[in-house]
Model the fold of this input.
Amino acid sequence: MTAAPAVVIKDLSFAYHPGRDVLQLPTMMISRGERVFLHGPSGSGKTTLLGLIAGILRPQGGNLAVLGVDLGTLSGSERDCFRGERLGYVFQMFNLIPYLSVVENITLPCLLSAPRRARLMQAGSVASLELAAAAIAERLGIGGLLGTPVTELSVGQQQRVAVARALLGAPELVIADEPTSALDSEHREDFLRLLFDETARSGATVLFVSHDLTLAPLFQRTLSLRDLNQVAAARGTHA
Amino acid sequence: MLALKLALKSLWNRRFASTLTVASIALSVALLLGVERVRLGARAGFAGTISQTDLIVGARGGAVPLLLSTVFHIGHATNAVPYSAYAAIKARPDVAWTIPLSLGDSHKGFRVVGTTEDFYQHYHYRRDEQPRLVLGHIPQALFDVVIGSAVAAKLGYQVGSALTLAHGVAEVSFQNHTDKPFNVCGILAPTGTPIDRSLFISLEGEEAIHADWTDGAPPQSGRGTAAAELIAHPPAVDEITAFFVGAKSRSDTLNLQRDINETKAVALTAVIPGVTLNELWDLVAYGENSLRLVSACVVVVGLLGMLVSIYHSLSERRREMAILRAIGAGPRMIVTLMVVEAGLLTILGAACGLMLVYVGLLLAQPYVEAEFGLLIPIQAPASGEAGYLSAIFGLGLLLGAIPAWRAYRTTLHDGLTMRL
Done:
């Protein structure tokens, strides 16, 4: 495993329509293993930045290196493979495919990405994908729900399944986009503790995005996208 | 494989809509295949109505009307063949056998055929089947009549029943040969041909009921010859409507046909049944094709229903697409998923449709045979049907590509944004 930083951004810019940049980031860096809180209120370019880091969007100007890979040089399907193999992603809510069971949801990324599956199996301690999923589900306190239809889960349970899915196969960077906003404050801290425990086990970097600053003290470092993104900052001063 | 598994689970998750889609495809496919089965069954049935007969000879006229009136009892011949001309051809050395036919009367909508024992000896259908009596004997007395199985079943006649014939072939006739009642002497076994719907009398019987008729009009009341007198002195047969010819050898047929058609003394037409049947197919091809066109349109509508159903599901599945994207599925995977779903629905629909055809055949076959004299065989799918099914499958995939394309566009546009 290389020691390249998790995310390195230099002069990154992006526009959905030519000439109307929504993102201009002069510089941003996240080290390996870091747990970073990215404060991103709406309109700050949060969705765009996450799309770029996850490899959904293609950088238009500047440099974006994720886990040592220059995403600007990859094709669309190469970025899809990269994401499938090396990233984990947790949405705000409705993370799960409704027609799959809990265990099927958890194992899906490893079925989609052969390298991810290979890495999991090479880790050695597991006999099968399902057993690995069962182990991580157990640690997250959802071990008894593996066969349950996901539509019968509570929101908190759904988010834990999403974490299990994002973490199975030891991705090096986990992006969590407001994963706690649908939880009440008590469950929020539980959820974060589980997330941190699991990422600490694999040494994964955590990029946690939220507009709710009350959670910021739990992280090692807080970044404010409004300050970093010069488009949003400019709009802010004009407003 | 993963796409197939996901597509199956996704379809199962929407099983109500999926079932409806499969049902509509199945019904349309069943209609298309059913029409095809009936068409082929009708062709085979038609072609099997007359076998081993080399020529049909009648008064000069069209080949198709001659075939239709003599074999299928559809329409009627207008002119007669002099008995002497018939006798001359019958006597030729290259003629093996003949079956004379005298048509033009009916009984309650069923055609009456005047013929001789030659009919029972030489007439063949479905290659080597022959009309067979289940009860009684062939006509011996002047006013004896043998009835087809459908006539017996419909009208409830038994051997010994008396009936009167009507002049003309309309369902309701105003001229009945009431003065000359016939006696049922035999009942034929079902054949699945127009024979079942016919009554057979002797040529003399046919002549007798028209005794004293002049210019197609009956004699005045009380002036006709009495039935008893006719039995004592059967009238001579001086004309028939048409006759079937069996040649000594196949190679004689063409010579014989040419000779008959070129005879100057009597204006006759001789046709080869198979050749004329082909002319008939050309004639009915328009009808067949329009029927097929309509059922093909129904299939397209069924598949469009699937398109609508999948397309409609897309908007509620944008979230699912975003999740799949987030865990590493490329747009190509999304497209594959959609096309596989369409393919599965089409295959399921086509399979159910095929099954429906067989179930339908099993249930309807006896009824159709009894009611229309049409035997539709229950057999394995023919190569033509395999062609239809693969065309339907291809079309299904093609239509599935439309929502797939939209899902692809949506996926690229939405990215990871979770739109509700």
User: Anything to note?
Assistant: The interface with chain B takes residues 47, 50-51, 54, 56-57, 76-77, 80-81, 83-85, 87, 89, 91-100, 104, 108-109, 111-113, 116, 165, 177 of chain A (CB under 8 Å). The mean pLDDT of chain A is 85.
